[in-house]
């Protein structure tokens, strides 16, 4: 089974940047895709971005497209989410998760089996 651990959250001013990291077990990444979800206070958990095991398919939600970039290192041990031009509405707990699907469509949390503990991102003045 894939195991994931998130890190990199913190407090940042609007317009600033943060880079989140998801450490994963590389031995199973040829069978699992990695997704980033977030949950803001009072809102449902939503898929933000995902990347396929072969580093070919990438997805971004409309709210983050053009501002966030997902990437995977060559060893397939780390999936990063570079977040630029951050807005207060980006404030949420961000979760890394492993699942079998990442394509052009929306992400569904029920497709993801392994979840990290979450890391808090706060965008505020």
Quick structural overview:
This protein has strands spanning 4-7, 10-12, 18-24, 33-39, 46-51, 58-60, 68-72, 78-83, 92-99, 114-115, 119-123.
What kind of sheet is the major sheet?
7 strands, mixed
The helix/strand class is: mainly beta
Termini distance?
40 Å
| Large-scale geometry | globular
Please give the radius of gyration in angstroms: 13 Å
What portion of residues is helical? under 10%
Assess the beta-strand content as a share of residues: 35-45%
Task: Count every beta strand, where a strand is a DSSP E run of 2 or more residues.
Answer: 11
> SSE order in H/E notation?
EEEEEEEEEEE
Look at the structure and give the mean pLDDT: 92
Low-confidence stretches: none
Total helices: the number is 0
Compile the SSE list and pairings.
Layout: E1 4-7, E2 10-12, E3 18-24, E4 33-39, E5 46-51, E6 58-60, E7 68-72, E8 78-83, E9 92-99, E10 114-115, E11 119-123
Parallel strand pairs: 2-11
Antiparallel strand pairs: 1-3, 3-8, 4-5, 4-9, 5-6, 7-8, 9-10, 9-11
Give an overview of the whole structure.
It is a single chain. This protein is mainly β. The protein is 0% helix and 45% strand. The chain has no helices and 11 strands. The strands form 2 sheets. Strands 2, 4, 5, 6, 9, 10 and 11 form a 7-stranded mixed β-sheet that branches. The chain has a 4-stranded antiparallel β-sheet with strand order 1-3-8-7, with no helix packed on it. A hairpin with a 6-residue loop joins strand 5 and strand 6. The protein is globular and about 40 Å long. The termini are far apart. The mean pLDDT is 92.
């Amino acid at each position: 089974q894939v195991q994931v651990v998130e890190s990199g959250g913190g407090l940042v001013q609007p317009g600033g940047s943060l880079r989140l990291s998801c450490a994963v077990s590389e031995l199973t990444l040829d069978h699992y895709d990695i997704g980033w979800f977030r949950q803001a206070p009072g809102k449902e958990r939503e898929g933000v971005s995902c990347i396929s095991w072969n580093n070919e398919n990438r997805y971004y939600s409309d709210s983050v497209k053009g501002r966030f970039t997902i990437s995977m290192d060559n060893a397939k041990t780390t999936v990063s989410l570079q977040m630029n031009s951050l807005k207060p509405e980006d404030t949420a707990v961000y979760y890394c998760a492993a699942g079998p699907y990442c394509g052009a469509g929306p992400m569904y949390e029920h497709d993801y089996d392994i979840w990290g503990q979450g890391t808090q991102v706060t965008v505020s003045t």
